[in-house]
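Predicting structure from sequence has reshaped protein science. With that in mind, we have picked out one protein's residues alongside their backbone shape tokens:
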Amino acid sequence: MEGIWAALYIFVLAAFTGYEVIGRVPVILHTPLMSGSNFIHGIVLVGSMVVLGHADSLPEQIIGFIGVLLGAVNAAGGFAVTERMLQMFEKNKRHKE
């Protein structure tokens, strides 16, 4: 039970810190920030795959599968959004020429 409270405490601190840090990033740096967050989501995906590989019981396997699925969707969606944002900058270059 003590581990759950520690994990919840770390989660709340991470959420608050992330909100404060991202809220202060200038708009022009959002695309590089998204690219970095996509990299982190890739690490989360690999970590969840490792955890799934070591899962012994059915609930652990289900939770691991959900982690892999959500990590993959999040990483793929992040790369798609970043690609669309980069295309928006390319269109602005063409109009200026």
In short: Helices lie at 2-23, 30-54, 58-96. The chain has a mean pLDDT of 82.
